[in-house]
User: Fold these one by one.
Assistant:
Number 1:
Amino acid sequence: MANKDKKGFNTGVYAVLTSIILAVVLVVMTIFSVVTKYTAFSPEKIAQSYVDGIIQTGDGYNAYKTTLVSKNQKYGDFIINAYMRPYVNDGDDVKQADFVGTGSEEEQKAIDEVYNTMYAYYCELIKTEGWDKYDAVFDKYFSRLTEVRKAVYGDEFMNTEFMFGALEANVQTYADSLTGTKRTFTPDNKKVLREETIGAYQVMFGNIEKVETENIVDGKKQTVTEEQPVYKLTTEVKSCEELSKADAKAYAEEFSKRIKPVAKSGEAKADKFGLTDVDKKHAFKTNMVNAFEKLDCSADIEGAAKVSLEVKDQNGNTVATQELFVVKIGSSWYVDNTNINTSALYISQGE
């Protein structure tokens, strides 16, 4: 049986796993982009994509790519301009720790310590705030990351690449803790680099079955049959009710009331952090103000729909239900993230 412990990144395998993870991320991003392009034309499919994205791996972070947050701006740019910029300090006059960029064991240990320390904090934020409160999650996460970086590296340096690296590694580790992971092997396929792990979903829902997997037998990687807990979660749309024109207009007005205070909060946030516009290329305050202002899509909403969804395991048991509203702008539908509670989808936390 696989090892049930999930400890995060291991220093001995970090270099090899990094290239693998980057390749997987690029493939996933491409698939996500294509899938989102076509699901956006259907209120049922965009709702299903949103819920399924969270339920499968607990990934409330990437779920925002299907919401109104990403309607008027790229999601990554929004995160940079609205949340990362106050902490970025990557000028030529800011010295990094001597081991940065060396690929040494010291650097690997520092990366591991930052990622693992932040992972514990990430899990705490998911439990206490939840991704429905993304503003609080981003604010608190990057503030803490800055402190942890300084404590571990002993420098003042911070850039967006490092910040995305830590956050997205934590998101992936959280997903692994739910789904479990497969064995990975050395490049010559003669040794196990990392043993597989059993995830929370396998424990909660898994049926013990014989499955074909890869392992090392007599010094060679071979396909073997092992008993493992197997599960499957399926998201189904139970109903989709498009609102009348009058009701959709009323819904847009209610959305406007919810979003306008958020959209107007950028200037106060920028002033709190002391952000200013240095020049056109470094318009830090303006970029933060604009990032929040672009969240207001109320004038563009042409339709709305209420969608009810159900999540079932492989035995047909309902493990979660979710109701959400999607809105139509042009020919595309978006999830209204201002009017939703996804806590039921984080089933591993017993919510």
Number 2:
Amino acid sequence: MSFIGGRMKEFTVSKTKVLSEDLYCDNCGAWVYCTEMNSKMENEDGEVIEQIGEGCLQRTDKGDFVECPDCKSRYYMSE
């Protein structure tokens, strides 16, 4: 499915929500990110935590985001 005639939009989404629920684009409906893409890491306290999968986050001066593969809308992460 491709999105024709649309424009890239910017959204803010909770990082916790992205780590726990599949994310579909509010602009075009395409699948953006799913929980199976999460990776695990050990934090400074030795606890294993989930994080956004390696290579999935991009960064601009506005912050970290995941991008819709169809319409290129950006989902900036908030804590």
Number 3:
Amino acid sequence: MSKKKKRLRKLLITLGVILLLFLSAWWAAYTKTRSERKKKNAVRDKLEKYYADGDYEEMTNYYYMQGDIKGTKYAKYKRMAELYDEYSAADGYIREAYDKFASGDEVRVDYSWELEQMFRVILICDIYRDEGYPYDEEKGVKDIRNKVTNYLQGVLLLTDSEIGKLSGRYLQAKTNEEIEEVKADIDKLAVESMSRLKQ
């Protein structure tokens, strides 16, 4: 075999090995990416199932269990998890304060601060509404807003008009002074609610 043919043969073998290594690396990267994509899709599908079922507590727990998941396809669940956390905390505060009030606990004289937290949840819901629900979170936001409103009306005896006026003013408040005025009116509403409950 001539030297030229030997060199050509070595070159072809080298090129074949390089091509084989390249294809192996590409296949490994493709398989890993595909596997990660499947996992992310499975996570998103599970989050969407919880969301569609209205099980925001499980959706929130599952979302936070996933660690730091980012991207626009998770924005809806991130936003809903944060909103649900706000709602859950405010709901726990107001129920505890109401239970103390209803049992005649004299240490706790009102639930003004707790009522402010409930109106804060309504404020967040109204901000999302005014943004046009950019992540298709309309159903969940409306569900949580309805839960808050139903509690305020059904348990604390606030009227739809009272809730509507204060939440509208809260949404429109831009300065610290305006926000403090709204909070002062929420405090007055808490006192009014207590007097209704005592009757």
